[in-house]
């Protein structure tokens, strides 16, 4: 892992019209790391993720990608930056009327000049990476929730992004399927050198995969802790953070 900063927020405030969601957010995501956005329900995790994909403009502060001020860039330049982003939404967000292969091919067909043969080979590669080679001609309704998540991941990888965003990737998955998805996320970091931002409530997954993170507080509407999940668990003295990060131990589970 190098020390280069890939994504940075500096003094960012996020709001929907007059409704303040979070203020004073400063963070850095290092290249080739997995960064977790943590906090209780409704504190603004997905909203923060949205702002880091360029879907929500901060009301104050700066969002930069490899040092480049995202919102100061021209729309054309922002498009170029956006092509570096791959996003996996909670549901997998597949088109229900298309096969998995067609779903993964769609971004390439819409946004590149690649020949159909090349696209087909790329689709096979992406589906192979997530272990779904055999499912290329199946419809989303014919596969399980875990498979849909993996297909969504294959589609997120369609344009070879180097920065990936995951919103609750393990939500609704059983622990084994969830651990398999974690393996894939770790492969993306370790095998492809991807930079990854993840919103998750799943403590086993967070402890296993995240290198760094931020903890948002709903009441004060500002971040109250920075660090990896394990650092927050072991060293953070804030009672709310401590309670959140040790929830699992109280349930009798043992994590590193
Ligand atoms: N488009 C919107 N317009 C107005 N308010 C919104 C919008 N999207 C989200 N909110 C509000 O922003 C707040 C934060 O929502 P967000 O989904 O970011 O929280 P979260 O931490 O991801 O929650 P959860 O863990 O429950 O998914 C909530 O009060 C939500 O109602």
TrEMBL record:
The keyword Ubl conjugation is annotated on this UniProt entry: no
Keywords, alphabetical: ATP-binding, Nucleotide-binding, Transport
Molecular function per GO: ATP binding; ATP hydrolysis activity
Pfam families in the record: ABC_tran
Domain ABC transporter: 7-243
UniProt keyword Nucleotide-binding, yes or no: yes
PANTHER family found in the cross-reference section: PROTEIN TRIGALACTOSYLDIACYLGLYCEROL 3, CHLOROPLASTIC
Name of the featured protein: ATP-binding cassette domain-containing protein
Organism: Endobacter medicaginis
Lineage, uppermost ranks: Bacteria, Pseudomonadati, Pseudomonadota, Alphaproteobacteria, Acetobacterales
